[in-house]
Design goal:
Blueprint: H1 2-25, H2 28-38, H3 45-52, H4 56-70, E1 81-86, E2 89-94, H5 99-106, H6 116-128, E3 131-132, H7 133-140, H8 145-153, E4 157-162, E5 169-173, H9 175-181
Antiparallel strand pairs: 1-2, 3-5, 4-5
Helix pairs in contact: 2-3, 3-4, 6-7, 6-8
Length: 209
Amino acid sequence: MTDEMTDTSAEETQDEGISDEISSEIPLAERIEAILLIIDEPLGLVALAAAVGSPVPAVRQTLEMLVDDYDGRGKGPRRGFELREVGGGWRLYVREELDDVVAAFIGGQAPARLSQAALETLAVIAYKQPVTRSQVASIRAVNVDSVVRTLLARGLITELFADSETGAINYGTTDALLQHLGINSLDELPPISPLLDDGADGFDEGTIR
């Protein structure tokens, strides 16, 4: 029994070694592209490095090389897709100017758009988070219960924590919002002051970006 287990273990180790050897023979850029083609959400640098079995610095350098290549800064032409770092991870995206071409091909319609009320509520939560439903309602001067439920269902906001004294739920935005906006963090949101009539209406001074 021991000999059989030893033989089996040796075979498995040999198979793993062969697999690693084959993978190492494939250029890192090709391995990264293979993973990027099958993911449906941004993949972090560390996770991507683990997936292709290469050091993080090498993967980071290769990603930057691929960005330049796809953008036409390499030897080849500019591609119809681009590689972007969004929401803390990397993913391939169709270039914005080609959205209509893709939409026409798949015969679909543009995704359901958020209402003006939902967009305004989402903006308040994005800039003032963590924030309670009543605080959002106070800023917008309307009831926002149904809008908040819609944003939760879309995965654009999430419940962060409950206030220890009142039990009110505090809301914040999710990584999904960053992905939709095409930014890497909330710090990349534009300053809110120029968008307000007096530069501060409805917002505390400390929350103005």
